[in-house]
């Protein structure tokens, strides 16, 4: 078993500019939570939305989903309200940042085929490759970071079924579920399907996001509150307020090449082309802005993404710090991936009442148990960066 120093938040482990920790004997590593033991982080039901064509009013796709730290599973059914030559089909996409896994078109097969129509066989369904669901969640163009190993897993087209799609009045429940390792977003759309000769024709309905991972707290926590860890959607979140001025030097060194105030619009950043960034093991990307709060003041909002580019028994994480004008007080967040999976993104949205400066640092580390809580302990970090 690997051994690490037992260093927790209360001992000041989350300090920008740190190097590797010492590794004394006797301090054992705490493993990240196992998905097999973890309870679902989210579950719910869904119904598809109708497309513009009149025939969409006579079909419906519905079902339920369950999300764990490393898996999303969907069980689903379709309903046909009218025999009109069209069969209800359904299509899914599980998304995570710019990666995603889409399905083909699921539809019920006919039991008794007559002129391309028939009642559904309760034990048989078909799948054909259809147009992929595009990622409508993430920004496009110049805002999209260059990917090291990004990939979209497209559905493998199965042999086209010999029987045709079923048409009539029925509700058909699919025996097989759709499951994916991408757990941030779940998209669904209903599809009208029919067979003309040997070819399939289809009309796709609108894409609906039926699940999106939690954005996290929308208000700054009590500044007096100590460190805490939240286990949400595959990302560990730790937060504390420090008042020892530890960021003054990094702020002074980094302000020469950075903006001087929080921007009014969204500003994107990435660590990929910066020096001293762990040889690409951890990829940090995000965007930030300021907004007016309910009291008429200004809060800072940061969307942060952390990607593990190497399965090396270390966990990818990023430390961010919002500070006041002279950096004597800072609200510090550590966001880390709960799974050591190559190419795995995690994300979180954080808000802060400290809006004068924002710094971040990409790290890799391990987990430790401190007072019964799982704590991310950085072992190696890149150079601190000042965003404003």
In words, what does this structure look like?
Helices cover 2% and strands 46% of the residues. The protein is mainly β and 388 residues long. β22 and β23 form a beta hairpin. 41% of the residues are buried. Residues 1-37 and 216-233 have low confidence and may be disordered.
Q: Which terms summarize this structure?
A:
single chain; 388 residues; mainly beta; 2 domains; seven-stranded antiparallel sheet; six-stranded mixed sheet; disordered N terminus
**Helix count, DSSP H or I runs of 4 or more residues:** 1
Question: How many domains, in number, for the residues?
Answer: 2
Instruction: State the helicity in percent bands.
Output: under 10%
Main structural class: mainly beta
* Total DSSP E strands: 24
Mean pLDDT score, rounded? 74
Q: Largest sheet, if any? A: 7 strands, antiparallel
- What is the succession of H and E elements? EEEEEEEEEEEEEEEHEEEEEEEEE
- What percent of residues are in strands? over 45%
- Shape type: elongated
| First-residue to last-residue Cα separation | 41 Å
* Unreliable residue stretches: 1-37, 216-233
**CA radius of gyration:** 25 Å
């Amino acid at each position: 078993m690997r051994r690490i120093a037992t260093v927790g938040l209360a001992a000041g482990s989350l300090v920008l500019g740190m190097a590797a920790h010492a590794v004394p004997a006797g301090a054992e590593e705490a493993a990240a939570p196992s998905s097999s033991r973890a309870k679902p982080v989210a579950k719910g039901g869904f119904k598809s939305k109708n497309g513009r064509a009149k025939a969409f009013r006579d079909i419906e796709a519905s079902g339920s989903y369950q999300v764990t730290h490393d898996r999303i599973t969907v069980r689903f059914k379709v309903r046909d309200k009218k025999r009109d030559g069209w069969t209800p089909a359904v299509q899914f996409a599980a998304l995570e940042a710019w990666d995603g896994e889409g399905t083909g078109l699921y539809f019920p097969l006919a039991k008794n085929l007559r002129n391309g129509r028939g009642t559904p066989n309760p034990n048989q369904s078909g799948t054909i490759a259809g147009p992929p669901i595009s990622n409508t969640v993430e920004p496009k163009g110049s805002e999209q970071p260059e990917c090291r190993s990004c990939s979209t897993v497209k559905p493998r087209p199965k042999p086209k079924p010999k029987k045709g799609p079923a048409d009539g009045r029925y509700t058909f429940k699919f025996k097989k579920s759709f499951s994916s390792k991408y757990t941030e977003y779940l998209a669904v759309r209903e599809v009208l399907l029919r067979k003309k000769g040997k070819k399939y024709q289809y009309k796709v309905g609108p894409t609906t996001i039926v699940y999106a991972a939690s954005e996290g707290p929308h208000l700054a926590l009590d500044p007096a509150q100590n460190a805490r860890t939240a286990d949400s959607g595959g990302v560990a979140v730790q937060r504390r307020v420090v008042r020892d001025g530890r960021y003054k030097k990094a702020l002074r060194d980094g302000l020469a090449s950075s903006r001087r105030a929080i921007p009014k619009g969204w500003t994107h950043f990435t660590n990929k082309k910066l020096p001293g960034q762990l040889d690409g093991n951890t990829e940090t990307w995000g965007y930030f802005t300021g907004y007016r709060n309910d009291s008429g003041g200004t809060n800072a909002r940061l969307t942060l993404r952390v990607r593990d580019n190497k399965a090396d028994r270390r966990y990818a994480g990023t430390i961010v710090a919002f500070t006041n004008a002279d950096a004597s007080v800072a609200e510090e967040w550590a966001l880390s991936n709960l799974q050591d999976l190559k190419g795995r993104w995690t994300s979180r949205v954080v808000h802060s009442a400290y809006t004068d400066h924002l710094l971040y640092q990409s790290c890799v580390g391990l987990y430790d148990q401190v007072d019964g809580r799982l704590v991310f302990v950085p072992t190696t970090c890149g150079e601190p960066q000042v965003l404003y």
